[in-house]
Each structure stands twice: as C-alpha cells, then as structure tokens.
Amino acid sequence: METLSALLALLAGLDAALIQAVADHGDLVYALICLTIYAETAFVVTVFLPGGTLVFTAAALAARGTLDVWPVALGCYAAATLGDMTNFAIGRALRRGAARGAGGGLAGTLRKRLLPPQQLEAARRAFARHGAATVLLSRFVPILRAAFPMAVAMAGMGWGRFIGLNALGKVIWAAVFVGGGYGLGGIPWFARHFGAVVVAAALFPLLIAAARQLLMHLLDRRCRPENQSSPKTP
Predict the structure, then answer these.
(1) Does the UniProt entry include the keyword Cell membrane (predicted)?
(2) Rg (CA), the chain
(3) Across all residues in the chain, what is the average pLDDT?
C-alpha cells in the first residue's frame, strides 16, 4: 500500500515536478522524457515508469507554454518505437538462445526472469485472438505493454512485420496521449484539477483490466459443470 500511495502521489504532482525540472535543467528535460519513455518497455523490468502519463503531462504543459509540443511529440514517438524494438530484439535473442539450449541454460533463465510465464501466455492469447491489432494497441494495455514485443518475438514474428506494425501503433499512441494532453492542457478547469485527472487516467486501464479478469472468472465458474464429483474409490 505504501508503494501504491507513493506512486499516486508522484502522478498527482507530475506537472509540478516537470515545471521544476524545466526551471532547473531547461531543454535537457526533453531528453529525460524520451529516456523514460524508451526505458519503460525496452527492458521489461522498468515497466513501472510512468511513460504514457509523462507524455500526457508534457503535452499539457506544452499547451500552457512551458514546453514545446513538437519535441515532445516527435521525441516520444521515436523513444517509444525504439523501446519496443529493443524489447523485441531481446526476445529474438532469448528465443535463439532457448532453442539452442532446449529451453534451459542462461537464455531460459533470463526468459523466465524477464517475462514471467503468465505474462507471456497472456500476450500469446491476445495475439492469437486479435492478431495485428494487438501489436498496434498493446502499448495502451498495462499488462501487455512490456510483455508483448518480447512475447511475439519469442513466438517467431519476423522483424519486417513487427517494425511496420510497431511504427503505426506508435503513431496512434502518440496521437492519443500528445493530442489529448495538448488539447486539454489549456482548459482552466483541467489545469486546476490536473493531479486528480492524471491519477484517474492512470488508474482507469487498471480498473478495466481488473473488471475484465473478474468477469472472465465469473463466466468460467458459471460454465463449469455444477456437479463435479471426485471419482469414487472401490
């Protein structure tokens, strides 16, 4: 609970932190934003970084004149694209290593450490069900954001197809977060309640994911045979 409270406090004060960073470091803030976006998915273990929220906040500050919107938009697009490509490259390397070692050895250990089996399976199920649309939209889903590029690489997707889908997906992602933040950032009510709006926006995907899991669990229980008795022993 303490970790969650600290994270929510960070999100609520993200605009003030960025404003102070601009005052202290000037244009270096653009590099810091891009590095955060890149690291969020490039290395899996840094998925906790507030990538989308940071982009949204930076775009909102651009609407108020604190930042320039074009470096935010283009830099975040490039950083997100390169981050997922790095994640994909790691997945390809682990797939080759696991194949040579029959799933064991260093590659197998790293694969399990970086991408838990449940995340890998969730990404594979999503891709099997929705195909290319999952590559386009995976960055919007907290569970899939860091797992999906590596998962599809391990599943055997080639570089050509991934690069095309990844580039298009990041156009959609950047348009939503940069466009949304910039469009709302100049509205006085939004500026006054920025912290609460950002926290709500960050929690919304998690609530949707939790509601979906609960619904699937209830449907699964309902579909099970009501009378499942264990086999009788003679």
Answers:
(1) yes
(2) 21
(3) 78
CA-closest candidate to residue 58, choices 100, 28, 14, 108: 14
Q: How far apart, in whole angstroms, are the C-alpha atoms of residue 131 and residue 165?
A: 11
The single-letter code of the amino acid at 154 is M
58-93 tens-digit pLDDT:
999 999 999 999 999 999 999 999 999 999 998 888
89 assigned to some structural domain: yes
Q: What is the pLDDT, as a whole number, of residue 194?
A: 81
Q: How confident is the model at residue 104 (pLDDT cuts 50, 70, 90)?
A: low
Distance CA 123, CA 85 (A): 16
Token duo for residue 133: 């649309």
**3 state SS of 227:** coil
Q: Are 44 and 87 in contact (CB under 8 A)?
A: yes
With beta carbons less than 8 A apart as the criterion, state whether 108 and 198 touch.
Answer: no
For 140-168, letters b (16+ CB in 10 Å) and e give ebebbbbbbbbbbbbeebeeeebeebbee
pLDDT digits (tens, 9 = 90+) for 161-197: 899 989 998 999 999 999 999 998 888 888 888 888 7
Owner of token pair 């604190």: 66
Q: How many domains does the chain have?
A: 1
For 37, the domain range is: 2-223
User: How many whole angstroms separate alpha carbon 204 and alpha carbon 140?
Assistant: 11
CB pairs under 8 A, 24+ apart, for 92-97?
A: 92/153, 92/154, 92/159, 94/150, 94/153, 94/154, 95/153, 95/154, 95/156
